[in-house]
Amino acid sequence: MPSNFQFRRMLVTSALAAPLLAALPLPALALSEAAARSLVNKMVADINKVIDSGKSEPSMIRDFEKLFIKYADVPIMARYALGVDGRQASKAQMRAFTKAFQSYISNKYGRRFREFIGGTLEVRSTRKIKAGYEVKCTAVLTGEAPFEVTFLVSDKSGRDKFFNMFIEGVNLLLTERTEIGAMLDQRKGNLDQLTADLKKAS
Amino acid sequence: MRLTQRPVIAAIVLILAGLLSACATQTAEQRASGEIFDPYEQTNRKIHDFNKVIDKNLFRPASTGYVSLIPEPMVISFTNFSENLSLPSDVVDALLQGDLKTAGNGVVRFVINTTVGFAGLADPATDFQIPQVDTDFGETLHVWGFGEGPIVELPFYGTTSRRDAVGVVANFFTNPLTFAPTRPVKNIGFWAELLERMGDRGNFSDTVDSILYESADSYAQSRIIYLQNRRFELAGDDPDSYLEAYDDPYADIYGDLYAE
Fold it and tell me: Would you call A77 and B254 a contact, using CB atoms and an 8 Å cutoff?
């Protein structure tokens, strides 16, 4: 029923918006191209800070995980990566999986930070898409031809966060959905087992 | 190996024509749903396993040895040399695609790098801001309207589509530097290409290893990454061709949350 649906959605939106409005009464901060762009710039600056910190690898990976939570809409990404298998999951299972997913991603991609030492990421263009904004960047890493990195940003979680990333057209969510799906198949669809194994591995 | 030219070319043309018109097709609904078209999956997986054995025992150790023993500037030079050698064939493909700008850039790059760039070992064309030229017969077929067709895993090569597999084979046998009755050094194009691939395999070792040896299903990973990257390349600068790749996970999830 559409009216029912809209009503509930409104309720959820206003419930989410209420604390935000209380904190920031003026001006109303809707996600804009400028905000999407600045989100990506801030994230890149934070990532570079971690890389330049010279900490040990495990401690850097912990820092990357914090940045991932800060800048990415992790619950929606985890949900998407789980695909149709996520539909039967209980709330508690979903929460546990989301947590395991977030350390799995931070570990998998954080371990590769060396490739980004001395590299730059420059925002080239932003535009509106259905789910929010697309922020296109050019990455320049030492000894490599420049390549394209695109972030998709949305404020549907209540804050400006990125929910997907493309490197030369290869999309993090779709690639991880394939990978998580294969991991689940190996465990005969046992989500709790997968969550436990992801936790152990990272 | 000395093959007589004409019968070989005739055989290849026949095989390629047969491949392009082969009978496996995908229904419109399957295509619209974004389902991967992989009717030969069982065979492909076997070839993929074979390729992994080759990689693990030969290609990977040779490549990591190559990039660690040979100084980096030399590896880059050999890669430049190989890329320069493939320019004539890129120019032909650009012309076949009606892309005069890319063809022109290719000619300019080839002339500059072959002369000032010491037979292509250096890449002054890039310093002169001449855009990179990288195309292939698979792209030409795409421009001519051929669909990508089913997934094909080529031995010693990797995951590709039927259209791009035809492109790879056609490029190899029509490039005068890899396969021609007279050429300056026997198979020089082939050896240069092999060195270039070894350089890439060695330099991007972590990425390739994570796909081939650290993922739960290396075939599925290679396939999804190949498809996304290739579609991205072929879409070029057209901003709208890309929009359909943008799944809206929020729509997906809200649909779930509010389902009655």
Answer: no
